[in-house]
Amino acid sequence: MIEALSQPDVQAFLKAHATDSPAKLALQRHLPGGVSASLLASQLKARQKAKDKLPSWLSRDGIIFPHGVAMEQCSSETTAAWKASHYSGSSFADLTGGAGVDAFFFSQSFERGVYVEADAERCELASHNFGVLGAPHLQVVQNTAEAFLASKTDSFDLIYIDPDRRAGAQRAVGFSDSTPDVVQLMPDLLKRATTVLVKASPMIDIRQGIRDLGAVRKVTVLAVNNECKEVLFECGAAAQPLQIEAVHLLQGKEQRFVFDPEEEGTAEVTLAGVLAYLYDPNVAITKAGAFKTVGTRYGLAKLHVNTHLYTSNMLVGDFPGRTFRVLEVLPFSSKGLKSLKLPFAKAHVMSKNFPLEAAELQKRLKLKEGEEGFVMGLTVGSGKVLVVAERVN
Fold it and tell me: Which of 73, 123, 126, 252 is 20–30 Å from 326 (CA)?
């Protein structure tokens, strides 16, 4: 497969047909290099996913992309590069190699590395791609994580593991439903590495993950462009106070908010009605659970215990999220909804702790999606309101 897809005319064909439908390509008869239509269609589909996920790999001639689950589950180069920039040392092992994205980026920060993967085809692809990318110090080992640990006595500065979160046709969330069972492996992992970094589903219950793994030193919620991408559990045998960090990567900039669970538990946030400005924390902060801490740190009041928006009369300029200037606050009632008069016909509609979802609220207000402003359906201490606002930053 690799030899066939690496042919210059095949690579040129894939580039020339980059935006074509893989389904239509699968029906074509006259294709270059004697490569089957189904194989070309599969590679084209993988390359289209790589356009946003792995643009630097896509720009390199000769890269062959895995298909199916390996491509869907692999880290983006944005998140992989972030992880590699925060961990370095002499050696690392990636025990769930997959597409090889994380292993390759970690290899830029470590003197040597081991990519471990049970699937023979993925190992073959990884070995080929590492050669194309220039990572000669990255060893490829075909084995399961469990068998690799049982057969080797090596120790590492970092062991990275991203358990397969597919349980049959369903996607698993917790560690107990993933493969390998990282909870059972953890005692051995801690003996073999100074740091164990576990990648979890963005949907994971962070508190449950901490309880399941034990020895957790830090939890990182990693978001890109306000979409939660990864939750990382850093574990180590040496005990230290638990930290939770919310990292938001947005247009080349990084917003970072660090707190500890005890601080969140004891924080007391003031409740208030809608004031001159509203603040919407980025998704990393809300996923991390810093619902009170983010308000107290920035001197903000909260609209309601379960409405995770914050407010102030004076503008706070460095808030890690979106900031809005309030233009109008309108009382909300189902009966009075049709009689409301808004200052624009197009707007972004938001719903926070509100009986109507954003799409339904937009429909009832007869608003078209647009850049003219924002309309927010919110629950505050006094009841349900609609807030008309404009974006500050």
Answer: 252
Say if CB 185 and CB 145 are below 8 A apart.
Answer: yes
Find the DSSP H helices in 159-238.
182-192, 206-213
- Residue 376, beta-bridge partner list: 350, 387
Find where tokens 């996923």 sit: 287
Q: What would the CATH number be for the domain defined by 72-240?
A: 3.40.50.150
**Distance between CA 159 and CA 368 in Å, rounded?**
49
265-391 CATH: 3.30.2130
Locate 202 and state its tokens: 């963005």
Angle between helices 182-192 and 206-213 (to 10 degrees): 60
Task: Let me know: does 85 contact 109? Beta carbons within 8 Å.
Answer: yes
CATH class of 2-65: mainly alpha
Span 3-30, pLDDT tens digits: 889 999 999 999 999 999 998 887 777 7
Q: What percent of the chain has pLDDT over 70?
A: 97
AA letter at 5: L
What does the mean pLDDT of the chain come to? Answer: 92
> What are the backbone dihedrals phi and psi of residue 83, each rounded to the nearest 5 degrees, phi first?
-60, -45
Backbone angles phi, psi at 212, to 5 degrees: -65, -45
Q: What is the pTM of this model?
A: 0.92
SS3 of 309-322: EEEECCCCCCCCEE
Spell out the residues 6+ positions from residue 352 whose beta carbon is closer than 8 angstroms to its own: 307, 308, 309, 376, 377, 378, 379
Q: How far is 231 from 198, CA to CA, in rounded Å?
A: 8
CA distance 142 to 114: 10
**Domain locations along the chain:** 2-65, 72-240, 265-391
Q: How confident is the model at residue 137 (pLDDT cuts 50, 70, 90)?
A: confident
Least confident among 81-90, 174-183, 185-194, 305-314: 174-183
For every residue of 269-280, DSSP letters joined together read --B----SEEEE
- CA distances 321 to 74, 106, 264, Å, are 27, 29, 19
Report the distance separating Cα 115 and Cα 103, nearest Å: 6
Q: Is 215 left (phi over 0), alpha (psi -120 to 50) or beta?
A: left
